[in-house]
């Protein structure tokens, strides 16, 4: 399809090219997750049924539900009462991989509009310290509204450049770097994202991403965990960034396998356009939209 011409370079990476293109044309399912600080998944399903919604439980994410693409759950009383949050399914992955524990110090470097921050706070059971940072003032207002609606109390918000986030207040057990990117993977919900897919923009973003990930390494405690994530297909913003940082901090970093039972993924790339990458990058997680009908 002509509108996806910029994706042709990924054809060798995709097992079923026609299924990939077809998935981009379908409406994106609506997804929500239960705020287990206020309710249970079973009780939430009952409330949703009373609102005329038909929740389909996610097999891989306890408390997560898929709804019809046309559903409008944000207009319901359970949403307004903070019993659940509305969030794209694929964006649930990074907090699951970060796996924070109650009582830890956790940093979300690029947190707005706040869905992943909310996931982390709920996983921490409102205990410990979660710092939610973002450079965008407007998007941080949205994040603060989400925290209030869901009753999340262990979150401190900051507003600064993630690549220059200071370390004076100490290091963190876990750091999430869900970095700004070219957003190719959001084209199912935002077709305008395709307008910014060009080599120069991708090159610029990769420099920003590398600086953020390098700072995440500096801010993380020895033995801690960092999750790096994007919503783009571009290897220049994914494996190549991680490869650069692995080599820059080879005495401090070890790449762990990124896999989640019940969610289909492809391994990370170990080579791209003639460049050999660190072999451990095959342990990374690459998500294509046709694998799980997601972004």
Give structural attributes.
295 residues, alpha/beta, four-stranded antiparallel sheet, 9 helices, globular
Walk me through the topology.
Elements: H1 17-25, E1 30-34, H2 41-50, E2 56-57, E3 64-67, H3 77-80, E4 84-86, H4 93-98, E5 105-108, H5 115-123, E6 129-133, H6 137-150, E7 155-158, E8 172-178, H7 199-219, E9 220-229, H8 239-248, E10 266-267, E11 271-272, E12 275-276, E13 285-286, H9 289-292
Parallel strand pairs: 5-6, 5-8, 6-7, 8-9
Antiparallel strand pairs: 1-3, 1-4, 2-3, 10-13, 11-12
Structure, explained:
With 295 residues, the protein is an alpha/beta fold. Helix content is 29%, strand content 18%. It contains 9 helices and 13 strands. The chain has helices spanning 17-25, 41-50, 77-80, 93-98, 115-123, 137-150, 199-219, 239-248, 289-292; strands spanning 30-34, 56-57, 64-67, 84-86, 105-108, 129-133, 155-158, 172-178, 220-229, 266-267, 271-272, 275-276, 285-286. Strands 7-6-5-8-9 form a 5-stranded parallel β-sheet, sandwiched between helices. Strands 2-3-1-4 form a 4-stranded antiparallel β-sheet, with no helix packed on it. Strand 8, helix 7 and strand 9 form a beta-alpha-beta unit. Helix 7 (199-219) crosses helix 8. It is globular and about 55 Å long. It starts with 16 loop residues before the first helix and ends with a helix.
């Amino acid at each position: 399809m002509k509108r996806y011409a910029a994706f042709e370079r990924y054809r060798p990476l995709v097992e079923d090219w026609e299924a990939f293109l077809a998935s981009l044309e379908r409406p994106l399912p609506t997804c929500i997750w239960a705020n287990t600080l206020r309710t249970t998944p079973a009780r939430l399903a009952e409330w949703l049924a009373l609102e005329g919604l038909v929740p389909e439980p996610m097999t891989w994410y306890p408390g997560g539900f898929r709804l019809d693409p046309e559903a409008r759950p944000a207009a319901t009383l359970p949403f307004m009462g903070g019993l659940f949050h509305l969030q794209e399914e694929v964006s649930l992955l990074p907090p699951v991989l970060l796996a924070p524990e109650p009582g830890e110090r956790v940093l979300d470097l690029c947190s707005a509009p706040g869905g992943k921050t909310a996931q982390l706070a709920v996983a921490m059971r409102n205990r410990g310290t979660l710092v939610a940072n973002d450079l965008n003032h407007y998007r941080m207002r949205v994040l603060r509204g989400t925290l209030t609606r869901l009753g999340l109390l262990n979150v401190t918000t900051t507003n600064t450049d993630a690549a220059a986030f200071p370390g004076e207040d100490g290091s963190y057990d876990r750091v999430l770097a869900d970095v700004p990117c070219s957003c190719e993977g959001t084209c199912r919900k935002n077709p305008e994202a395709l307008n910014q897919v060009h080599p120069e923009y991708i090159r610029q973003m990769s420099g920003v991403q590398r600086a953020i990930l390098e700072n995440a390494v500096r801010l993380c405690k020895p033995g801690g965990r960092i999750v790096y994530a994007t919503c783009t297909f571009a290897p220049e913003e994914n494996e190549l960034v991680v490869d650069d940082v692995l080599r820059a901090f080879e005495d401090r970093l070890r790449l762990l396998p990124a896999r989640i039972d019940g969610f289909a993924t492809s391994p990370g790339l170990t080579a791209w356009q003639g460049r050999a990458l660190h072999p451990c990058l095959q342990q990374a997680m690459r998500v294509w939209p046709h694998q799980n009908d997601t972004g």
